[in-house]
Amino acid sequence: MVLALALKAELSGVTDLRPLDTEDSPFYYTFKVQCTSCRETHPNWVSVSRFEQNEISGSKGEANFVWKCKNCKVFLTVRVAFGFELMGVA
User: Fold this and answer.
1) Per-residue pLDDT, 2
2) Does the pLDDT at position 89 exceed 60?
3) Domain-located, residue 23
4) Has residue 70 been placed in a domain?
5) Which pLDDT band holds residue 1 (cuts at 50, 70, 90)?
6) How far apart are the C-alpha atoms of 37 and 71, rounded to whole Å?
7) pLDDT, tens digit (0-9, with 9 covering 90-100), for 31-78
8) Cα separation of 66 and 45, whole Å?
9) By CB neighbour count within 10 A (0-12 exposed, 13-18 middle, 19+ buried), where does 88 fall?
């Protein structure tokens, strides 16, 4: 089952709004993705969990989502991280 939530609000004094996102109850971020090389759009909506890891072909790295564009064969990746994780703070 797929559920979607659209949220629109006027907020005052809110500094840390994010979904409940734990390994036991992961939040799936859903996007329409487009190749940054040829601009081909993925035919489906893509759901990404920050707890799922996929190997990047030809690399030692991992990403939450890996897509090989059918048009130009370029590999594209998505990594989900919160602000403090981007700054290197665990």
Assistant:
1) 34
2) no
3) no
4) yes
5) very low
6) 10
7) 888 898 999 998 999 999 989 999 988 888 899 999 999 999 998 888
8) 14
9) exposed
DSSP designation for 56: P
C-alpha of 73 from chain center: 20
Residue 11 located in a structural domain: no
SS (H, E, C) 3-44: CCCCCCCCCCCCCCCCCCCCCCCCCEEEECCECCCCCCECCC
Residue 13 lies in a domain: no
- State which residues form the domain around 39: 28-86
Question: What token pair was written down for 52?
Answer: 């799922």
Q: Tally the domains of the chain.
A: 1
Would the pTM of this model clear 0.85, i.e. be above it? no
Q: What is the rounded CA–CA span in Å between residue 83 and residue 76?
A: 21
Any bridge partners for residue 66, and if so which? 77
Predicted confidence at residue 79, as pLDDT, reads 82
Please, what is the end-to-end C-alpha distance for the chain in angstroms? 32
